[in-house]
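step=encode ok
step=design start
structure_in=
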């Protein structure tokens, strides 16, 4: 079987380095907010070419903490509207509602799957205060257009970079493209821990300071609580693992790009719509997502031939039980995407033989 993502294979390549890192933490006797987290924050800030990085418990918390910090700073308040792509992973939207802000779902561009800047303008109201841009599947949103809109309307611009470690937009790294960014180090992400992890990046020292406190009970000094914070820290152990894996990230991204290029050159079946790279972008191919009218037929065909695929995502947020108020909402582009997308095997450990097998089997598929 050709696996969709072979995490065991990816991580076992670094087994010795990971064991050494883990041993270092065990022997240090220091397990929360120590040297490993500090070293990772420094290394990841430098990787993203951004001023500040704060390690947090997971990607959802990274986004929650950004909005929460802006509330503490007085730039957001309950009920403010946040524009967000309607086809994102639900965590983007949870981070908004968790803060009692109001998500306004905006349709994506059918070619890039990222939020459509032209539709954003129409969705702006006197209550709009922020845009949450999601770099879906590893390709950055149209940041120059979004920045222009954000500046013209005095909106905060935040990146959900959970799928975009190392991606660039006109030469600028994800994580340094807006006011703040949230990253996830969930094991299956391009930079994956061996458990949960996340980070916020920003060039704003005041925002970094508030998040630094908020992730640690709202405290800057032990037993002195300036804010009503939470406990959302990146573990020392996960940070030690991420310090190892960050060193290999560019090499892994390079392999993902080679796999994507083979798919883009090799898949010629007219029933399949390939992903589009939009101007200025160098995607990191967290996922390689195709579209086809009869997705179930194609997925079953590939399964029969031993090729594992996944759907990102099968149900759009506005049709989830979590958001019952939105059930009457019609978002035709988002709904079409959710009906037609299929993610092909994509990982840094896929070999050419397997990629070529996937290509030739897709090319023989017919309705
Ligand atoms: C994975 C992901 C998140 C959430 O990250 P977790 O670490 O799983 O909490 C948020 N947004 C997007 C787009 C994601 O893919």
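sequence_out=
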């Amino acid at each position: 079987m050709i696996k969709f993502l072979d995490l065991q294979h990816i991580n076992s390549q670094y087994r010795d380095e990971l064991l050494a890192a883990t041993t270092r933490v065990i022997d240090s006797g220091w397990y929360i907010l120590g040297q490993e987290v500090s070293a990772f924050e420094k290394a990841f800030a430098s990787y993203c070419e951004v001023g500040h990085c704060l390690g947090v418990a997971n990607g959802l918390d990274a986004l929650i903490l950004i909005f929460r910090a802006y509330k503490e700073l007085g730039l957001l308040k309950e009920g403010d509207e946040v524009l967000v792509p309607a086809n994102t992973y639900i965590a983007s939207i949870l981070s908004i509602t968790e803060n009692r802000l109001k998500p306004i779902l905006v349709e994506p561009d059918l070619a890039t799957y990222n939020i459509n800047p032209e539709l954003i303008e129409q969705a702006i109201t006197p209550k709009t205060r922020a845009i949450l841009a999601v770099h879906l599947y590893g390709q950055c949103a149209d940041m120059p257009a979004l920045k222009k809109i954000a500046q013209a309307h005095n909106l905060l611009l935040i990146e959900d970079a959970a799928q975009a470690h190392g991606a660039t937009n006109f030469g600028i790294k994800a994580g340094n493209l807006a006011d703040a960014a949230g990253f996830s180090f969930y094991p299956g992400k391009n930079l994956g821990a061996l458990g949960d992890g996340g980070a916020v990046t920003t060039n704003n020292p005041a925002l970094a300071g508030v998040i630094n406190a908020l992730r640690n009970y709202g405290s800057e000094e032990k037993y002195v609580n300036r804010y009503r914070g939470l406990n959302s820290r990146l573990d020392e152990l996960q940070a030690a693992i991420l310090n190892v894996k960050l060193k290999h990230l560019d090499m892994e991204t390079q392999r993902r790009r080679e796999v994507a290029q083979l798919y883009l050159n090799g898949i010629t079946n007219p029933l399949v719509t390939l992903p589009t790279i939009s101007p200025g972008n160098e995607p990191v191919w967290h996922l390689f997502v195709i579209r086809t009218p009869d997705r179930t037929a194609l997925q079953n065909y590939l399964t029969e031939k031993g090729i594992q695929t996944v759907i990102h995502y099968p149900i759009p947020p506005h049709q989830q039980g979590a958001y019952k108020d939105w059930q009457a909402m019609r978002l035709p582009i988002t709904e079409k995407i959710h009906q037609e997308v299929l993610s092909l095997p994509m990982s840094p450990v896929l070999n050419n033989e397997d990629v070529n097998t996937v290509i030739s089997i897709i090319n023989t598929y017919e309705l």
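step=design ok
step=annotate ok -> The mean pLDDT is 98.
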